[in-house]
Design a protein that fits this description.
Blueprint lengths: L8 H4 L10 H26 L3 H8 L3 H9 L6 H11 L23 E2 L4 E9 L2 E10 L6 E3 L5 E15 L4 E3 L4 E5 L4 E19 L4
Antiparallel strand pairs: 1-2, 2-3, 3-8, 4-8, 5-6, 5-7, 5-8
């Protein structure tokens, strides 16, 4: 597996965790996030000239759910965005980046629910490869959390806590500062050991655009 990925202290300098905000301010920021994602879904759907009905058929996501997402009133999850990204020939991070590439204030942005884990999109880098970067929280559970399969390669660096992560048949135990990489299109799991964990997840994709 390729180890040619962006590394170094810069990744660890990202602020993990939201700054303190009032309940009203956080709600406003989360509403703004949902509207932004909805606008991006419409934008990329338009680029592909795909109707809402056709996107629903290809992705297996109900048309009503897609309509709510595009209007900004839905609840975008990483699984849903991953399914849509695959159809639209982009990465999930493209739904969260602004069109002009300008930095966004993500304080209070809603964390994306995953298969038992939560992920906060931090940044997207496009070079020889495309990288979506997430703060990922793995809760302590009685059994492993199994992820839906998806495209790309996961590179996960443990920040806090200990967890078994990786392919279902051969997970790797990660301590703080350790990393693992594995293909997302194979069954994989996350299992916190002794308490919840925080990790930095970098999703590697081919650098392609719609």
């Amino acid at each position: 597996m390729s180890s040619a990925f962006i590394s170094g202290p810069a990744f660890l300098s990202f602020s993990l965790g939201n700054s303190r905000m009032s309940k009203d301010a956080k709600s406003t920021a989360q509403d703004s996030f949902a509207r932004h994602v909805g606008q991006r879904i419409r934008y990329f759907r338009g680029l592909q000239d795909i109707s809402l009905s056709e996107l629903s058929r290809r992705s297996g996501i109900a048309k009503g759910t897609l309509s709510k997402l595009e209007s900004g009133s839905g609840n975008p999850t990483i699984v849903t965005l991953g399914a849509l990204a695959g159809i639209l020939n982009i990465t999930p991070g493209d739904f969260m980046e602004p069109r002009n590439g300008a930095p966004r204030d993500q304080s209070g942005w809603k964390k994306l629910a995953g298969p038992g884990i939560t992920m906060l999109f931090l940044h997207k880098i496009v070079a020889a490869k495309s990288w979506d970067i997430y703060e990922t929280n793995i809760p302590q559970t009685d059994a492993p959390i199994y992820s839906a399969t998806h495209g790309g390669i996961e590179h996960l660096i443990m920040i806090e806590g200990v967890a078994d992560v990786g392919p279902v048949d051969a997970p790797t135990r990660l301590n703080p500062g350790e990393r693992v990489a594995f293909p997302g299109d194979k069954p994989h799991l996350y299992f916190a050991i002794g308490g919840p964990c925080t990790a930095l997840l970098m999703m590697e994709h081919p650098a392609k655009r719609a």
